[in-house]
Amino acid sequence: MKELPVLETDNTVDFAPYVQKFKALADEQRLQIMNILTRRGKTCVCDLVDDMNLSQSKLSYHLKILLKADLIHKETKGTWSYYWIKEETVNALLSEELCCLFKPSGQ
User: Fold this and answer.
1) What would the DSSP string read from start to end of 11-79?
2) pTM given for the model
């Protein structure tokens, strides 16, 4: 396993940008949505309704939270909306930089 450097912090790290993202991911249904979008790429909301076995209103609620957290993209074509993962945001959450803020010294 690759050894990652520990980032020294002086309690000035601004975690606010991460709070909303992690709160959005702290829900099993939203994680399932993210997983579907990761596997499929751009997906119509009509397909997500079937896959998730959720009402349109509940699915819209979860998608709104993921959008607000900047975790997914949305494109509307006519009456249909399509969603896909915002890779740059997800990659930042999974990055070595963020992981090293929580890695104990000496490991």
Assistant:
1) S----HHHHHHHHHHSSHHHHHHHHHHHHHSSEEHHHHHHHHT--HHHHHHHHHHHHHTT-EEEEEETT
2) 0.78
